[in-house]
């Protein structure tokens, strides 16, 4: 009979940022191990609190499913002599498998033994599987504790393992599994006996532990909503913050606190960052403006909550006082003085200081802006923004709140009277700062962002810091995709070659480094196009035809995807015909040019005529970037191509005729070269 499995690892507090990844890995590994061990189950869920990781599996079979083992022995030729008598090889095989020779099966020229292996009891298998699950769990970091050698993300303090009402007995990290768990560190008991897996969640809830993180999250949001309604306020909630708070507590109690309104003179971004990053508070808004209050969530009940509120208000008062001090101190310093301090901040050992990077940004951004045809006003704004792009890295505020880089640059630049495009670009040049994140909103910010990211990429490749596997400490992959997204979103046609050449020239990167960077950008482009649902064969075909102009690549991909989705039949027929032309043309040596006088068959004359009629329109459309229009014209060649290939023999004995026909096919197939490598497009097997 099937039953429920509960496996709980009790630990010291696990950092909130690690919990979600551990849950996902535990779920994936548990599913794989159960399947590998032939233990059927209905559903798996994984839960967590700061002090425990919990695996719940419903409908776990009482025993492994039976399986059939098939063992191959010697070939029939070796197993029997010429008279059909078993040899020592056959007898030895049977004896080794502990069966009579009559039980051996002959199939496909070999001897086989087939035997049924009955499944073992699930508890017995789980006692071996669960320790293996923990030992092999992928973790961001591990530690040892005590005198033992076992490693885990945090010290393990207890293990509960129940299959229905029965304990799954095993030893792990010097601990014996049991039916004993622990309640809330302050509100619950230190030892709680669980009689059945079905009772686990309710018995822990009695001890102020809400094991299900989704339920804790819902409770927090409910409590916040109640406070919003009671106080007529709006609370600033982000997914990251609610997830982190959920992972920090076992039993939530939300409360409203306040601080001195004088602190509201400090920019909103600073106040919100201080509350969120340092205290995990939820900022509060009133009438669309930041209010002098906050919501926090206690890991406990509502008893003595007034004391908790006072304590939190004292803490935030000190935090905001520091922030206000940093703000006023920074505002008393000239922006250029901060710039000079950048000379003392190392960027890369091989490349000097942040100030040296700023000097490169001034040159790069101006060059890129001119290549893109920006107006002189924007070029001047770009020059100034590049000069001030990194000054805030020397401020006290960014030293305290690193996430405010760029933001404080904008705020301080505005306070100092810098023009709006300059101040905006200082903040925008860090965008996008996460996968799929917001892009720069202005041309000046976009060019400065490209320059900054290209400098980072080329600098790190030059210094030997290329991304490898999952190792990308400087987020170069994200920055590469950021450049690609900016270029496509703004329909800019600056080439990869220009970006690499101008940046490499300033840094001193040699040809080998430049080639590696080019390959890196191609890989990022291929990945990005795939994420935007472009078919892999179309991506491959487009990139093989050239990827120097990233925006042009995007347009070619879109045109091919649109043609394919609007009329799959026409698309397939066109590709099939062009591929046949290309394949045939490659089988011989075509003439240098087509000689119309050698066209004797009606079908080849018709193909040449139709080709000549559309060639100029197709190529001019492609050159203008009107790829859909050009491809539609190319589709007109579908019937003439088919008629030619179905009725005209290309590889005739007459050399001039053969070469002329090959030249015609080569010319026709090359019409698409500007868009794609036609041979990379995959066709359905039945069409081939």
TrEMBL record:
Q: Name one GO biological process term.
A: glycyl-tRNA aminoacylation
One Gene Ontology cellular component term attached to this UniProt record is: cytosol
Q: Which reaction equations make up its catalytic activity?
A: tRNA(Gly) + glycine + ATP = glycyl-tRNA(Gly) + AMP + diphosphate
Q: In Gene Ontology terms, what is one molecular function of this protein?
A: arginine-tRNA ligase activity
Give one Pfam family, short name only.
DALR_1
The superkingdom of the source organism is Bacteria
The top EC class is ligase
Which keywords describe this protein according to UniProt?
A: Aminoacyl-tRNA synthetase, ATP-binding, Cytoplasm, Ligase, Nucleotide-binding, Protein biosynthesis
Q: Which HAMAP family match?
A: Gly_tRNA_synth_beta (MF_00255)
Q: How does it assemble?
A: Tetramer of two alpha and two beta subunits.
What is the name of the protein in this document? Answer: Glycine--tRNA ligase beta subunit
Q: Which gene encodes it?
A: glyS
């Amino acid at each position: 009979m099937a039953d429920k499995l509960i496996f709980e690892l009790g630990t010291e507090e696990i950092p909130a940022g690690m919990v979600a990844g551990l849950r996902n890995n535990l779920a994936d590994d548990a599913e794989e191990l159960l399947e590998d061990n032939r233990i059927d189950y209905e559903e798996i869920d994984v839960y967590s609190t700061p002090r425990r990781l919990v695996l719940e599996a419903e409908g776990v079979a009482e025993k492994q499913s039976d399986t059939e083992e098939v063992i191959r022995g010697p070939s029939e030729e070796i197993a029997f002599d010429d008279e059909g008598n078993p040899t020592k090889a056959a007898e030895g095989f049977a004896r080794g498998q502990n069966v009579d020779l009559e039980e051996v099966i002959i199939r496909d020229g070999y001897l086989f033994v087939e035997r049924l292996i009955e499944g073992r009891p699930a508890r017995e298998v789980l006692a071996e599987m669960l320790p293996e699950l923990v030992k092999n769990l992928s973790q961001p970091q591990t530690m040892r504790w005590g005198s033992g050698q076992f490693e885990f993300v945090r010290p393990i303090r207890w293990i509960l393992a129940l299959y229905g009402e029965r304990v799954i007995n095993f030893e792990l990290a010097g601990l014996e599994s049991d039916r004993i768990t622990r309640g809330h560190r302050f509100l619950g008991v230190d030892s709680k006996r669980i009689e059945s897996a079905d009772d686990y969640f309710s018995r822990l809830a009695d001890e102020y532990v809400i094991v299900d993180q989704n339920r804790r999250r819902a409770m927090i949001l409910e409590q916040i909503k109640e406070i919003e309604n009671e106080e007529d306020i709006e609370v600033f909630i982000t997914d990251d913050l609610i997830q982190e708070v959920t992972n920090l507590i076992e039993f939530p109690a939300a409360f409203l606190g306040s601080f001195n309104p004088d602190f509201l003179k400090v920019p909103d971004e600073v106040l919100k960052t201080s509350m969120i990053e340092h205290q995990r508070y939820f900022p509060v808004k009133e009438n669309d403006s930041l209010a002098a209050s906050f919501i926090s969530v206690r890991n406990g009940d509502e008893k003595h909550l007034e004391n908790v509120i006072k304590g939190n208000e004292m803490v935030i008062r000190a935090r905001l006082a520091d922030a206000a001090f940093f703000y006023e101190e920074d505002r008393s310093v000239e922006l250029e003085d901060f710039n000079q301090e950048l000379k003392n901040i190392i960027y890369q050992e091989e490349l000097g200081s942040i100030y040296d990077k700023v000097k490169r940004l001034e040159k790069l951004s101006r060059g890129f802006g001119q290549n893109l045809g920006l107006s002189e006003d924007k070029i001047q704004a770009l020059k100034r923004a590049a000069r001030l792009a990194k000054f805030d890295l020397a401020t006290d505020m960014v030293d305290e709140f690193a996430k405010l880089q760029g933001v404080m640059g904008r705020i301080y630049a505005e306070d100092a009277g810098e023009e709006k495009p300059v101040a905006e670009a200082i903040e925008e040049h860090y965008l996008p700062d996460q996968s799929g994140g917001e892009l720069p909103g202005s041309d000046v910010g976009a060019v400065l962002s490209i320059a900054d990211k290209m400098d980072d990429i080329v600098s790190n490749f030059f210094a030997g810091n290329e991304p490898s596997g999952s190792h990308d400490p400087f987020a170069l992959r994200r920055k590469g995709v950021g450049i690609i997204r900016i270029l496509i979103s703004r329909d800019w046609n600056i080439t990869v070659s220009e970006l690499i050449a101008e940046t490499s020239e300033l840094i001193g990167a040699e040809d080998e480094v430049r080639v590696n960077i080019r390959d890196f950008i191609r890989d990022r482009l291929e990945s990005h196009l795939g994420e935007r649902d472009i078919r892999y064969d179309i991506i491959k075909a487009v990139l093989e035809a050239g990827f120097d102009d990233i925006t042009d690549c995007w347009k070619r991909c879109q045109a091919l995807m649109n043609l394919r989705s609007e009329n799959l039949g026409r698309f397939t027929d066109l590709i099939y015909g062009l591929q046949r032309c290309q394949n045939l043309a490659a089988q011989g040596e075509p003439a240098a040019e087509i000689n119309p006088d050698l066209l004797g068959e009606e079908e080849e004359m018709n193909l040449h005529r139709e080709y000549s009629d559309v060639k100029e329109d197709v190529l001019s459309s492609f050159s203008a970037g009107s790829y859909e229009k050009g491809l539609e014209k190319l589709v007109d060649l579908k019937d003439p191509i088919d008629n030619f290939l179905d009725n005209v023999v290309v590889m005739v004995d007459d050399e001039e005729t053969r070469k002329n026909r090959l030249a015609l096919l080569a010319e026709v197939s090359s019409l698409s070269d500007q868009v794609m490598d036609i041979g990379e497009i995959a066709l359905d097997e039945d069409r081939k």
